[in-house]
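#struct-pred

JT: dropping the chains for the assembly here, can someone run the whole complex?
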Amino acid sequence: MTIAVIVYPGTNCEHDIAHALNRAGTDTEMVWHRDTDLSGADGVVLPGGFAHGDYLRTGAIARFSPIMDEVVRLADAGIPILGICNGFQILTEAGLLPGGLVANRDLKFICAPTHLRVASTDSVLTRAAEVGQILELPLNSYEGNYLVDDVDSIEVEGDVILRYTNADGLINESTNPNGSMNNIAGITNSARNVAGLMPHPERASEDILGSADGMVLIEGFIASTELVDA
Amino acid sequence: MTTLETPDHIELGMTDDEYRSVIAILGREPLAAELAMYSVMWSEHCSYKSSRSHLGRFTSNQPWVIVGPGENAGVVDIGDGWLVALRIESHNHPSYVEPYQGAATGVGGILRDVFTMGARPIAVWDPLRFGPLDEAHNRYLFEGVVSGIAGYGNAVGVPTLGGEVEFADRFSKNPLVNVMALGLLKEDQLVLSGASGVGNLAVLLGNATGRDGIGGASILASASFEEGDEEKRPNVQVGDPFEEKKLIEACLELYQRNLVVAIQDLGAAGISCATSEVAGNGGMGMDVDLDKVHLREHDMNPGEILMSESQERMLAVVTPENEAEVLGIARRWEIDASTIGTIKPGPDLTIYSKGELVGEVPAASLADDAPKYDRPAERPVYLDIAWANGPQVPADLDAGAVLRVLLDDPAIGDRSWISRQYDHMLFLNTVVEPGHDGSLLRIKGTEKGLAVSTDGDSLRTYLDPRRGSARIVYESALNIAVTGANPYALVDNLNFGNPEEPGVMWQFIESVDGMAAACEELNVPVVGGNVSFYNQTDGVDIYPSPVVGMLGFCDPMPLRPPRLDRAEVGMAIWIVGPDAAGDFAASAYDRIINSNLGGRPTDADPEIAREVIDAAVSLAFTTPVLHDISTGGLAVSLAEIAIKSGVGVTIEGVTGPELFDETPLRFVAVGQGDTLEIAAPHRRIGTVSGGTLDFGDSGSISLEEAANVWRNALPRRMEH
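RK: done, full complex below.
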């Protein structure tokens, strides 16, 4: 059972997500963006960072990296795919997830813990969590402000999996760190096998880091890849 | 030989005597390219000519020091095959000219210094100093510098764990932007800069060489902006964090595969400096062919190629057998590489362009034969006036009202406006994040912890450079001690005014003495440093601003280190350390409430320092909250704990003046139980309680009001 971690030039969270996945008992393999084969992978993670320097629009160049044809093929085949932060941005650019991510409302980079409320457990990422569960995960992005043409339709479809909130579960503008529509922090595709989120579950994967709340997402994703195997 | 248009040595900032020394070394008049090389390598920035004779007072002979001052970074041994590299630098003038790029390239430069040693850079800190924020230009500089650090640091993928900030009038036209970096490596990956092996090749890696920043770091920048001479274009370099990220990964792979004999980053004076250092440090010579250098602009002349300060470049020495593999790794990481030189027996660095010799100098002479000045020093007259004008502190002050004003100060209020723009979590090592006394990092797979604090105190060092400088060393040591770490190594960044003024030189010498003595008392090696002179604008020198970066080490590290947000109702509050001694010179009280700067700071007692630091280290393993008492005194320390923990405090038996006294070597401890098992003097002063900061007869303020003022101190100034 191996999860492929895609590395673009400028990616910087690849070792962190691999560390968290490995601690949870899963093997990982770093795959360079120029490679073209993911046939051994039971799941794929696009980690955070600044692929291709984020010059141009975030993810706009990465989406053309040679490995992406293979990522799309696996997505179509139902393999679990997870995009974290920059990886989420790349998945939207690649058309695997709806919408896009633009500059934060305050036009400042935000690195801070945030609270998330689980909106749906029908995804490869949130399957082990409970609806309404509140998780504390750090946000670390400049372009984290989610927007989509028809937000009502993704709400109706149940594509929203995580929303920004506070410790009490309140969801409104005051608990929205970056201006995202409907406080959306994470979404999934209609087939439910591709998920993306802006906050970093791997940064909340051990108590010594301040929170281990991300493990329910990481373990859920691992469980999803095991189901594919079976 | 090609004769270039010969620039005047005076125009390059060189004195007649220095020019005569060059002629003596070469036995002839220098060629243009040669003169340019000497002018930069012998500049204050590169040669430390005004400070070198004093820096010998810093010592670094402790057995855990692997590399002391002189290389790109200091390196210390932390056991089990792990080494830590550390370094501090300034980017003051570039950040004033262009705050975003000046600060960004400062980060890039310090990272190269660290990964040049074979280390992966794991964290950065940024001590900053600006003019008051009520001036729009200072806000512009502050905002630009913080954005530049964030923009570069976040994208290059190295966490920024904080730093410190001061605001004072003398920094308005001369902000200080210092940056410290830490790197981690296994001992078999240590690489030094000295070349060896005749026939080995010098490979230039990374960014293409362009016309940016020619002479930027030193000479031409001080010549003439206004002449509009296109050929010189002295400007601030432009940073490319993406290129640097690729360069880091490529170099780390080269080290891992043992493909590098020696390596040097390209900083001030670019290729000329890097080639001469690599050759000179190894006692070798080198043939360099400038036609091989990958260029951004095609018509650059040899002098420009040699002096360009284009960023994100490294010079690696490799064996001919490994050349193909090295170039292959560069290709894989999508960086450019070109073999530009060959190592030969010393001493000459010989430079060719278009098949012709354009320069030949003894490589080591650029560094070893640099001038050294013992500049006159004289105690400045301002001191007597300032000392006579000591702080007035009324015995019956209203502590609640005073605290309210202090918490609104931008250097005391919540600084998360800065740190939330920095990625301070990458690599999953950050255990104590920005907003506490010292940073604490774990090393995965071990029980070891690394703590870092950067500290400066320019107003106090202005009032007494010797005492002030010693006190920042002790303060830094205490800041890391409260995380459970013992002081282990120090780097210093000495920011001063014009060294040709005897008063400034006196400040510098006093400061070095004070700092060196404190380091000796704590048995802390000084493994590197940087001197930034000429921080003077319109004839006004900055406040003398030595800044230290202290590395602390613990093994094992505390699994639940003290934090400011762990106080709970019912816990006891102690103060540890000596009694308040009426220390208000350069205090926040005198600066903010009295709008005064005067009096003489007290001296820190080394014996008490050791006792208090030991107490902090031992308490750090059992106590929920430890917080040092510094700017704003006990009242501000308590307020920070209360605000972050969301609790109040009830304090008894502490007078109003004692609450704001800044006597050094004291900290607050908050925890369960009735006693503290420590040798250092301590006393219980109160209890954690509900929603008020209650100082008994001295006054009070509600938690809500204190928190609001404190949280808005920076945002209300910056966001309008």
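JT: nice. Chain A touches chain B at residues 9-10, 12-13, 15-16, 19-20, 32, 49-50, 52-55, 108-112, 138, 140, 142, 200, 202-203, 205-206, 208-210 (CB under 8 Å). Residues 117 and 169 of chain A are 7 Å apart (CA to CA).
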